[in-house]
Design goal:
Blueprint lengths: L5 E5 L20 E2 L2 E2 H11 L4 E6 L4 H6 L4 H7 L9 H9 L1 E6 L6 H7 L1 H4 L4 E4 L3 E4 L5 H12 L2 E7 L9 E9 L2 E9 L10 E9 L3 H6 L11 H9 L4 E5 L3 E4 L3 H14 L6
Parallel strand pairs: 1-4, 1-6, 4-5, 8-12
Antiparallel strand pairs: 2-3, 6-11, 7-13, 8-11, 9-10, 9-11, 10-12
Length: 278
């Protein structure tokens, strides 16, 4: 199957940088004005042609499932009022998408979270969105841009952006050979390297398209940095066979995993995106 129908959302992390609010609230439900982060990710996946949303959750994440479900009491309370239109977007999502969930019992890294989602994905190519990377574009969303590349190249693809070299220790970093404009054939991929030894300043952000063989590779991937199963290590196995591309996407990313990035995204969203009450 070549068409990408499903998008995986790893959403089991604790969100410790936002404590104490994330003690009882999933970080994926933190709002940019009036929508939670994960809803923006789902909308981006839908715009890229996907309607199967696979979410890897953990303890204390029930609010995510409740958000993508009908609240009959709320629907009854606001029916016919001037607030009803505010539910338009989420009603559309619920009617168009199928949501499935599984739990990551232990936090063993992004690679392990993706492997945990195998039961929801099956044997087909799929996308991955990390909801705390909020992306805005003027045309196609980042994932839609990547789907077009997948349709041509039929291999795993990661989204990248240039970062200050001193920040490489925060990201997976790639080096590669230019395949086309803004597109690299990956030959090296390192998780959170020291700036002195980083192969470049091209950092992987939270958008991936993965071929299904990644699951078998992840099963055989030993723990790497911090004792976690790293998706970069698994992707490097594919890259050695020439099967990974890195795409410098068109658009802007906000790191909503940090308080500074979250506030910057909130201000941008309020000014440029937010639908103000009628």
């Amino acid at each position: 199957m070549d068409k990408i129908r499903k998008c995986l959302f790893p959403a089991a992390g604790y969100g410790t940088r936002f404590l104490p609010v994330t003690k009882s609230m999933p970080k994926e439900m933190l709002p940019l004005v009036n929508k939670p982060l994960i809803q923006y990710g789902v909308e981006e996946a839908m715009a890229a042609g996907m309607n199967g949303m696979a979410i890897v959750t953990g303890r204390g994440k029930r609010a995510i499932e409740d958000h993508f479900d009908i609240s009959y009491e709320l629907e009854h309370q606001i029916a016919g009022t001037d607030k009803e239109w505010l539910l338009g977007d989420i009603r559309h999502i619920i009617s168009e998408c199928t949501f499935s969930y599984t739990r990551q019992i232990e936090m063993k890294g992004l690679g392990h979270a993706i492997l945990t989602g195998e039961t929801l994905i099956g044997e087909e190519p799929f996308a991955v969105i990390l909801a705390d990377d909020y992306c805005v574009t003027e045309g196609d969303g980042v994932l839609a841009q990547m789907v077009k590349l997948y349709e041509k190249y039929r291999c795993s693809i990661v989204a990248i952006e240039e970062i200050p070299r001193e920040d490489t220790r925060k990201y997976g970093v790639i080096a590669g050979d230019l395949e086309a404009e803004n597109l690299y054939r990956v030959r090296e991929m390192v998780e959170k390297p020291d700036p002195a030894v980083a192969p470049s300043n091209l950092a992987i952000i939270g958008r991936y398209i993965l071929t299904p063989d990644i699951f078998d590779i992840l099963r055989e991937t030993p723990p790497g940095r911090s004792g976690e199963i790293q998706i970069t290590d698994a992707l490097m196995t594919q890259a050695r066979m020439g099967n990974v591309l890195a795409y410098k996407f068109q658009g802007r990313r906000f790191d909503c995993g940090s308080i500074e990035g979250f506030m910057e995204a909130s201000n941008y969203n309020y000014t440029n995106v937010y639908k103000r009450p009628r």
